[in-house]
């Protein structure tokens, strides 16, 4: 099978390419090299057909997608960013870039497999339960709540703190920052293309991905990368709120395997799947693990950022059922 991987020199995309090449597939890569200062990184496979281009350019997509049987769309601007001033950059890279690609595939009468790198951020806050009132959907936390140390979302009925529960793919979506909104729009655009072209679309909702090649020293990186960058500078990781935010940290090699399974499954799955380890951890646990052996201690500073959510932990059961996916990499950061 010949597969186009957009962002195939990036963090997740390069590991997807590794996994595809290891299984004997032909791979084409569309990458702008912006994340690599215009140079080809050392991990690039020489046998991969590389098209250097911007995903916002439909001509670049047209060139890269020639003769492919499947498309794995990884290229995106990620992370929470700096503030709302980033909105145009996110929409350009994620929404406009996706639209350009789908237009190019439409013009080529593409009818192969589509796999999209989505994110757990489309859920907003995760799933919560109240001991008295059952499943509840909390409202977004206010700046005053964060400033005064009220971190746990309250039950809308009794106002007692809620407890988290695993999120299922059927949960309502509620994007609470610009990045989340663009990832959900990517899913919508892919879904429209799939319906109109009778093509299966698998949207893999990654949880917090970590591992080799993770970008450093950028506000667009994930929390694991931000902590690692601080430790590399000899600075204790700064942990917001009380460090009790719960996440699922999944290794990038597990994420890559999930992509290959989605691309090659005999019965393609049409819909969204959580890609997670199934073992939740707190942000403070992550910071402590990254600091281990360095003599540094994470600094819990309180406060918080609007758009961050308190708890979001997935159930990977559906990915296990439909793809046979199970995370196998140990938690080593």
Layout of helices and strands:
Blueprint: E1 2-6, H1 11-22, E2 26-31, E3 49-52, H2 58-64, E4 70-73, H3 87-107, E5 113-119, E6 127-130, E7 134-136, H4 143-147, E8 163-165, H5 178-197, E9 201-206, E10 208-210, H6 223-232, E11 238-240, E12 246-251, H7 252-264, E13 271-275, E14 280-282, H8 283-291, E15 299-302, H9 317-323
Parallel strand pairs: 1-2, 1-4, 2-3, 4-5, 5-9, 9-13, 10-12, 11-15
Antiparallel strand pairs: 6-7, 6-8, 12-14
Helix pairs in contact: 1-7, 2-3, 3-5, 6-8
**C-alpha geometry:** globular
Low-confidence runs (pLDDT<50, min 5 residues)? none
Distance between the terminal alpha carbons, to the nearest Å?
Answer: 33 Å
Q: Structural class of the helix and strand makeup?
A: alpha/beta
Please work out how many helical segments DSSP would assign: 9
Instruction: Kindly report the spatial arrangement of strands forming the biggest sheet.
Output: 3-2-1-4-5-9-13
- Overall pLDDT: 93
Give the helix level as a range of percent.
Answer: 25-40%
Radius of gyration: 20 Å
Percent of residues in β-strands: 15-25%
DSSP, total strands: 15
Largest sheet: 7 strands, parallel
Topology order in helix (H) and strand (E) letters: EHEEHEHEEEHEHEEHEEHEEHEH
